[in-house]
Amino acid sequence: MSGVIGAYANREADGHWTSPYQLARNLCLFTAVAANVQPIDTVFVNFRDAAGLRAEAMEAARDGFTGKMAIHPNQVEVINQVFTPRPEDIAMSEEIIKAFADNPQAGVVGIRGQMVDRAHIARAQRILARAEAVAQQG
């Protein structure tokens, strides 16, 4: 793709995406969420750099991606570790859903000292759905 737009590179020296590719990645994230499909981050091409893969996958998860493409089978374990909902994420998601179910008229509820609004329900439901999918794969 970089050659198509005339770019010399798609990554900065520190490994982060250059501006046009950050934009493309962000638009893919927003478009996937708007279409109600899983936003999957692109590949990390250095398949021998597990630490770099983990760091990039963690950034992607932080940003809202729910998975990452692998370019090599050795990357699958790290990707699965990063994107599988953690027990604390599952517990918080269950709390959010329960709090709003118990207070159906509320627009905002307090959970663990934080204000949580209705937009968090969708995220909680997505986390629980991913956790259920992982459990079914067993």
What does this structure look like?
With 138 residues, the chain is mainly alpha-helical. It folds into two domains: 2-83, Alpha-Beta Barrel (TIM Barrel); 87-137, no CATH class. Helix content is 56%, strand content 9%. It has helices spanning 2-5, 19-34, 50-63, 76-83, 87-102, 119-137, and strands at 40-41, 67-68, 108-111, 114-117. The longest helix is centred in the C-terminal third of the chain and has 19 residues, at 119-137. The radius of gyration is 18 Å and the shape is globular. The mean pLDDT is 93.
> Which consecutive residue ranges, at least 5 long each, have pLDDT under 50?
none
Radius of gyration: 18 Å
> What is the molecular shape?
globular
Question: What characterizes the major β-sheet?
Answer: 2 strands, parallel
Q: Beta-strand level of the residues, as a percent range?
A: 5-15%
* CATH fold assignment of the largest domain: TIM Barrel
Oligomer: single chain
What is the domain total for the residues? 2
Structure annotation, total helices:
6
Question: Any idea what the CATH architecture of the largest domain is?
Answer: Alpha-Beta Barrel
Distance between the termini: 37 Å
Overall mean confidence score, pLDDT: 93
Extended strand count: 4
- Sheet with most strands: strand arrangement: 1-2
* Class by SSE composition: mainly alpha
Q: For this structure, what is the CATH homologous superfamily of the largest domain?
A: Phosphoenolpyruvate-binding domains
